[in-house]
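ok here's the first one, seq then struct tokens
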Amino acid sequence: MFKTIVNLFFPKVCYGCRHLLTDNEIHICTNCRHNLPVTNYHFENNNTVEKVFYGRVKIEHATALLRFEKKGIVQQLLHNLKYRGHEVISTLLGEWLGNELKTVEVYSTIDIVIPVPLHKNKLQKRGYNQVAKFGVEIAKALNAEYIDSVLLKTTATKTQVFKKRMSRWKNPNQVFSIKNKALIKGKHILLVDDIITTGATIEACSNILNKADGIKISIATMAIA
């Protein structure tokens, strides 16, 4: 009865379509779950994500859980995650992808999961890194360590012009930096982010992480555009 009363005044809606959830649905409605554009890249030999970085930076393995479609469910989910404070979406997607990756042998050698960082000003404003819980859940599934103290974003950038700025900056140190390199020396790192568009962010982060000796880098994101 109490739950019914709460739902009457504070109805729970789907983060994908904004429709009311039934008692048996949690965060995302059944229809949205069935219609999410899943990639299955980590189960396939012909991997689109790995092709994005071919000839740009050495990547061991790479995957994205979902395909981003303009005005689609994934766009709505990421908008709710990044701008409406629904951080539980990060947890849900991390649990989902983590449970799949732990069944794929090539990801069994992951030692450390590292999130693409936010600049301290944006982190303070938003209150959380939208990929943090995504990374934490994947690390749990892979029995890996989650570390967010190695890769730092030192320059604040605007999302819509980041690609242009990255093309002008030959030195990625102007955007990202690394510290505590000893923590990742000789490790296989899984770098996680929310979405891959041009791959410029991941490329810059990978170049910085490669300043540590003997590391390997793989990629996992929530979505790919």
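and now the second one, same deal
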Amino acid sequence: MKSYLKVRETCTVCREELSHHRADDGPAYLTILIVGHIVAPLLHIVFVNFRPDPLVLFTIFAIGCVSLSLYLLPRLKGAVVAFQWARLMHGFGNKA
């Protein structure tokens, strides 16, 4: 990665061309899927067992969701690009 979500044009180590990757919306969908499966059961458990004030509950889980999403998004984008590279998808296998 060159910045938070920008993929470099070429790998700094092996000089593999990365500009033709097609990550698009895949990392965002995976992030929503993972964060939702972690936060939803946790929200239910905390609400049923502790019954915190709604504003406290919202604040804690909003910060948790945003933090976890921001942490996972670039890592999942790298994983999607790596999966495409490993499967020789979208021009990664072309030796022109």
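notes on #2: The chain has a mean pLDDT of 92. The radius of gyration is 18 Å.
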